[in-house]
Prior knowledge:
Elements: E1 8-11, H1 15-27, E2 33-35, E3 47-49, E4 63-66, H2 73-80, E5 89-91, H3 98-106, E6 118-122, E7 132-137, H4 144-154, E8 158-162, H5 168-177, H6 179-196, H7 201-222, H8 226-233, H9 239-247, H10 252-272
Parallel strand pairs: 1-2, 1-4, 2-3, 4-5, 5-6, 7-8
Antiparallel strand pairs: 6-7
Helix pairs in contact: 5-10, 6-7
Amino acid sequence: MPDSLPPLLLVGCGKMGGAMLDGWLKEGLAPSFIVDRHRESVPAPHHLVRSPDDVPADFRPGMIILATKPQKVDSVLPAVAPFAVHAPVISVLAGRTVRSLTDALAAHQPPGSPAPIVIRTMPNTPCAIGQGMTVCYAPPAATPVQRRLCTRLLRAVGEVAWVEHEDQIDIVTAISGSGPAYVFLLAELLEQLGVADGLPPELARQIARQTVAGSGALMQQSGIDAATLRRNVTSPNGTTQKALEVLMADGAWPATLAAALKAGAKRARELSGPQPVS
């Protein structure tokens, strides 16, 4: 049985933070502080407070997790900063670079304090049910032990991978961060087109949702690459081939998706601002 998790300071316990906390509790979490204005309770021996200012100054977390809404994080950083002198920080905030958070935390720490260690992550919405994909970037100052703990914590909500350069988070955002929306759009369109062709709405929804969900489960459980699975469904001169010929005509669908990913990655760079070469 793995060792229990160290005490944590979780700042923000909404859908993402709450899903992570549920996973950590199952693993065995040392007494920790959860900061959230809306949650009603946490199980003993953990502590629920409404503000980081309410966390005892002598609390020593093994890791700090910033899971607030991005637009609200600046209001909590001054109170979080003293704890970041002793513990690394995991950020699950969209659009905030390692440099921006490191500088903001350092501005509220005592002179001469070591630079805060901030690990930037990009989770996606299936993390809410433990089926997510989170991609992480750690600056060179992060230790292997800190990276391993980060991986263990984030595996509570799905799979975890790492990139070597922070600017790679932009395309990760466009693929996995935004990716669920593309899949939901496919299900939405399949449902709408089924209704337009005469299916009862309830049946069209059931077919569309289960087709998308079942296909994803098959791909995950089989381990077979997506191209092979697609070919396995596509009988020569059959219905699937005819439909795919329309979608792939002149590279239309691949080109559209490529353009969409480039637009998403570009917007991610705009939101994050300039990034240092890592």
